[in-house]
Every structure is written in C-alpha cells, then in structure tokens.
Specification:
Blueprint (H helix, E strand, L loop, with lengths): L1 H74 L10 H14 L3 H10 L5 H14 L17 E5 L6 H10 L3 E5 L8
Parallel strand pairs: 1-2
Helix pairs in contact: 1-4, 2-3, 2-4
Length: 185
C-alpha cells in the first residue's frame, strides 16, 4: 500500500508539473527573448558610441577638404576647369604621418588635418575605405578605385613595418628607386 501511495503521489506531482511547465517554458522563452533584445540594444548603443569619435574626426577631415577646395578654386584662373582630390591629399598626408620618423613632421600633419593621432587618421582611412571604396558594381552601384603609390629613394631606410603598412593597409604600390643617379625629365 505504501508503494501505491508513492506512485499516486508521483503521478500527481508529474501532472502538476505538466500543468505548470507550459507557463514556465513560456516565461523562460520570454525572458530569453527580452535578454537577447536587451543585448542587441546594448550592442547597438555601444556601436554608436564607438563610432561617434570617428564621425567627429571625419567631420574635421571634411572641413579640411572644404578648406583645400576653397584654396584651390581661389587660386585657379576664372573660367578654367579644376580637378583635384582632397581624399588623395588626405591619403598621402596620412601615409606620411603614419610612417615618418620625424615627430615634427607628424605634429605638423596632425595639426593641419586637425587630428589627435595617426591612429585616428588610420581609423578614418579604414572607415572611408570600407564605405566609399566598396565595389558596388555587382549590385548596380559604382566601383570607385584609387591608385596610391609610394616611390622612395633607395638610399633612405624603410622599415618592413612601413612597407607592409603601405602595401597592405593603404593598398598602395611601394618601390624603392634611385632618384639620385637616374633622374630624367
């Protein structure tokens, strides 16, 4: 009789758990969804906060580009055609600042570009390359390419890190050439 009572008790407990289980499972699923949603919101806020300094730095670069455009246009003859690329100028200055051993040169470039560091300039370059230079031709969009090249006098030292930065980060051609004895005009 004792085992019969135990069996009835277990059956009763299982029936009670089954009746409670759907709501517990539903509450657990709702909690998991809420947690996932909160994680997404937190990640989005983190991403936006992380992008804010880069956006402010890019705004400064736009201001520099507008300044350069004003200088170039004001120096050009009236009714003449002018073509120049502020992005290319920025790219060259960024490469020079990132690879220069001269702190004075870096400081001058950073000041002109209104930037706090070469890391900030590299972040801007990375952002521009990932957004502007994306090949959209497969989806009917534009394909914009740039040609950057660095030709450095062969007698000047160049670290492997600088060469790697030019070729792999800035996607520019790199060559050490003899400007001293093979000059041609």
């Amino acid at each position: 009789m004792c085992s019969e009572q135990k069996l009835k008790g277990r059956t009763k407990n299982l029936a009670h758990q089954k009746s409670q289980s759907p709501s517990l499972a539903l509450n657990t699923k709702k909690k998991q969804k809420m947690d996932s949603l909160q994680e997404l919101l937190d990640k989005k806020q983190y991403d936006e906060e992380a992008k804010r300094p880069c956006q402010e730095a890019m705004k400064k670069q736009n201001d520099v580009a507008l300044f350069l455009a004003g200088e170039v246009i004001s120096a050009a003859d009236k009714n003449s055609n002018v073509v120049f690329s502020p992005a290319s100028i920025n790219s060259v200055l960024t490469m020079a600042a990132a690879t220069s051993d001269s702190e004075a040169l870096k400081s001058c470039i950073l000041s002109f570009l209104r930037s706090s560091s070469t890391d900030e300039l590299n972040d801007i370059f990375r952002e521009i390359a990932s957004v502007v230079l994306v090949d959209g031709s497969k989806t009917g969009g534009p394909k914009i390419t740039v040609v950057n090249g660095v030709w450095r006098e062969q007698s000047l030292p160049c670290s492997p890190e600088s060469k790697d930065l030019f070729e792999n980060f800035y996607k520019s051609a790199f060559a050490q050439v003899d400007f001293r004895s093979k000059v041609s005009f």
